[in-house]
Amino acid sequence: MIYAISIIICILALVFYRSKLMFSILIGEAWILFAGAYGHADFFQQKQAYDFILTKGFTVEDPLWWLIVRLFSKSGISYRAFLWIISTIVLFLIARTIFLYTKNVAYVWVLYFISPMILDVVQYNNFVGMAIVIFATQYLIKGNRNLKMFLILVGIATGICSYMIVYFAFACIPYFSEKKILAFSLIACAVIFTSRGMIFWIASRLMKDEKIVAYFNRTIQPDTYFFLSAYVACGCLLAAYAYHIVIRRRPKKIAELNQSQFSVYAVSEMIVKINYIMLITIAIQSFSLEATRLYRNIFILNYILLSLVRKRKDYELRSAVLRIAVLFMAIGYSYLYIYYWNEDTVLIPVMEHNAILNWIFERF
Asked: Which of 21, 22, 126, 330 is close enough to 13 for a disulfide, judged by CB 3.0 to 4.6 Å?
């Protein structure tokens, strides 16, 4: 039943892509999944860590997440209530960012709902860190630039999930053109491919031994690596093409732009630069399967960029082809990564095992 309802909601959201009502319904369902899911791959480990956090000492890895969990646990708040509160705050940050960047709010969220939201339900502290980074990107945009605030927010995200340290690289966005950032990323890929030993040494100074094993000893199969790398490359190409469509008729003089137009062009430029920076994940995920989430974390930004393309009536055919391509990519990613590879540990538990839905169904 939950599958049928979700499919109907997604179809309606694709049709009524500007509807705030559809957006509210989608984010409501997302909250139910984030706050109520249990039995998935990481749930019992996360719950046990929460319940016994007071018996453990301070950890330098994800220290801010450790502090947040400890404060909630010490206050006597149950793990379920903790999920309710954190989910509400984090979903608000994402929703606030989407409304800031685009009017096609339901369209952005339905694509995120299709892929990769269900994975974020499982990898909870990554989800929290990702939301903070997405929210922080507003401070990289012309007219709203505040690099200090961006660095503070990414620092908070890194304290919650250590992987977020990669996103400090976004700080270069206001100072370099797309071409220079692309060149830097390609050079960085080459350096990373040839510097595995040094990266391992640095990581060993920052993380516990068991985490080193988890992050660097999970060998990735060639076919999986090819798929994930191709996905990153195609995502960057589609983002670049969407950016080309958006700025095609941009006035040459900034003075000719009104505030909304300036926002569209500035947001598009920022997102395409982020995609170029994230090309480095092709190299990083060659030795760490855990690193595949790095590009996945910017999917929402790519969906926002795609939503801006819908405004270009003079490129209707190209825009339609682009939207269809991205929709198929989102569905394909979900099919392979969520259904084919992780059906029993991710999809079924998240969609079918839910404390909130159980409570509702018991009463109605």
From this structure: 22
